[in-house]
Specification:
Helix content: 25-40%
Mean pLDDT: 78
Distance between the termini: 144 Å
Order of helices and strands: EHHEEHHHHEEEHEEEE
Shape: elongated
Structural class: alpha+beta
Number of strands: 10
Low-confidence stretches: none
Largest sheet: 7 strands, mixed
Strand content: 15-25%
Radius of gyration: 65 Å
Length: 233
C-alpha cells in the first residue's frame, strides 16, 4: 500500500486541506496513520483514486507505483561524512599531541631564558692618582687686580651755539678759541682724523680718508632710519 500525506493528496487533487477532509467524510473514508510514524496522517493511493473518480479529478501526475515504505526495524545507511568521523578524530588527536609537545618545548625554553645571568666580579681598582695641581680657589682669583678699562674714544665736536656761532670742543684741550673756517681752524683740522658736527640744519660725523684716498678727502657720514648716508665734503 502506498501512503500519501494530506499535503500530497491536496496537491494531486488540486484542492485545499479543508476540502480534502470534507470529501473524505462524504465518502466515509478514514484518515490513516503512517505505518512507521504515528505522528503523520494521510491517505492511501486507493482512497486518493476513489476521491478523484467521485469528483471527476485527473490523477495523471500520480505515479503508477508509489515509493516503497521502509520496513519496520530496517536500519538506514549512515552518511559518508559520519563514516569518516573516526579517521578525522584520530588525525585531530595526532595534531593535539604534536601541539602539546610544542608547548612543552616552548615552556622549557622560556625557563632557560628566565634564569639570571651571573656577571664576573669587576677587577679591584688601584689607589686613586693624586691630582697634578690643586684648582685655584675663588678667593685667589678674586684677589687678582682687575685690569683698567680702555677709555672710550671721544672725537672733537663742532657745534652751533644759541647765537648762531660755531664753537670747537676738543676732548683733550677743551673749548678752542678759534672759529671754524679760520686759518687756525684749518691748521688744527689737518691734525685730526674725525670730528662730529651739530648744526642748525642737522648733524653728521666727518672722517678724513687719508689711507684710502692719496690726497685725503673728508666724508660726512650719517645713519638715519636703518640707512647709512655718505657724502664727500
Amino acid at each position: 500500500m502506498t501512503f500519501l500525506s494530506l499535503a500530497d493528496g491536496c496537491r494531486h487533487l488540486g484542492i485545499d486541506p479543508k476540502t480534502l477532509r470534507r470529501w473524505l467524510v462524504q465518502a466515509h473514508l478514514p484518515v490513516q496513520r503512517h505505518p512507521s510514524d504515528g505522528r503523520k496522517t494521510g491517505l492511501s493511493e486507493d482512497h486518493l483514486r476513489q476521491l478523484a473518480c467521485l469528483h471527476h479529478r485527473s490523477l495523471s501526475a500520480l505515479p503508477q507505483e508509489g515509493r516503497p515504505l521502509p520496513a519496520p526495524g530496517a536500519v538506514a545507511p549512515l552518511p559518508a561524512a559520519l563514516l569518516t568521523l573516526p579517521e578525522q578524530m584520530a588525525a585531530m588527536q595526532t595534531q593535539l599531541t604534536a601541539l602539546q609537545q610544542q608547548v612543552a618545548d616552548l615552556s622549557h625554553l622560556l625557563q632557560h631564558l628566565a634564569q639570571p645571568v651571573v656577571l664576573p666580579a669587576p677587577a679591584a681598582k688601584g689607589p686613586p692618582t693624586p691630582a697634578s695641581s690643586a684648582p685655584r680657589s675663588r678667593l685667589a682669583l678674586a684677589a687678582r687686580p682687575t685690569p683698567p678699562k680702555k677709555p672710550a674714544h671721544v672725537i672733537p665736536l663742532v657745534e652751533a651755539s644759541r647765537d648762531g656761532q660755531y664753537v670747537v670742543v676738543c676732548p683733550r684741550q677743551g673749548l678752542l678759541a678759534f672759529t671754524p673756517e679760520s686759518p687756525e681752524w684749518f691748521a688744527w683740522l689737518a691734525t685730526q682724523s674725525s670730528f662730529r658736527f651739530i648744526g642748525t640744519q642737522g648733524r653728521f660725523t666727518a672722517h678724513h680718508e687719508v689711507l684710502r684716498v692719496p690726497n685725503g678727502a673728508w666724508r660726512a657720514h650719517r645713519h638715519l632710519r636703518n640707512h647709512s648716508y655718505n657724502l664727500r665734503l
